[in-house]
Amino acid sequence: MINETLDSIFNRKSFRKYSEKTVDDETLQLLIDAAMQAPSAVNRQPWEFVVIKDQEMKEKVAACNPYASFAKNASAIILVCGNMEKALPGPSQIMWVQDCSAASENLLIAAQSLGLGAVWTGVYPSPERMNALEELLNLPENILPLAMIPVGYPESEKSTHKKVNPVTVHYNVW
Ligand SMILES: Cc1cc2nc3c(=O)[nH]c(=O)nc-3n(C[C@H](O)[C@H](O)[C@H](O)COP(=O)(O)O)c2cc1C
């Protein structure tokens, strides 16, 4: 019963090595459009995206996460951010994290479906990484960075590791 959507989900994997081929603007936009189709609490859609294509900026952005230095070799880095002015008020504001995470996962699955290589590299909740990006990219105070996602054409094919684990499923009661 595998269709194209499930195929992209089951075959999605992180790519950290990219070829020199450029991902065109139309394709980058398609990835962001897919991200924006994600569900969000009370449909607030509290996301914003920063697309980094300039080589010097990619190097500086990659350096903001010690585990994402490879991002400088991607065709582009898409930074997924939450806009606190669009997020829910009060104690529910933190739901921007789930909302922007859903958007990030949509983006990754869309990338997989298009034969692109991408990987989620974490920013939130690390204060060091968030501060570094806020300063570097001149983010307004209400914009919080969640994840930076380098995108490129994969340098080589990669097999998918199976993660399906029936033991983690509980029925009716634990
Ligand atoms: C919140 C989050 C933070 C992550 N941060 C990093 C990171 O900083 N650097 C990195 O190389 N991968 C990062 N990853 C990717 C994971 O390492 C990867 O998803 C995991 O090893 C499973 O591999 P797969 O994506 O190929 O299934 C992150 C993933 C998530 C969800």
Give the mean pLDDT. Answer: 97
Whole-number radius of gyration?
17 Å
CATH architecture: 3-Layer(aba) Sandwich
- Low-confidence parts lasting 5 or more residues at pLDDT below 50? none
Task: Note the beta-strand portion.
Answer: 15-25%
Q: Percent helix among the residues?
A: 25-40%
Question: Would you give an account of this structure?
Answer:
There is one protein chain. This protein has 174 residues and is of the alpha+beta class. The chain has one domain (19-152): NADH Oxidase, CATH 3.40.109. The protein is 32% helix and 16% strand. Strands 1, 2, 3, 4 and 5 form a five-stranded antiparallel sheet that branches. The chain is globular, with a radius of gyration of 17 Å. The model has no long low-confidence stretch (mean pLDDT 97). The structure holds flavin mononucleotide (FMN). Flavin mononucleotide binds next to β4.
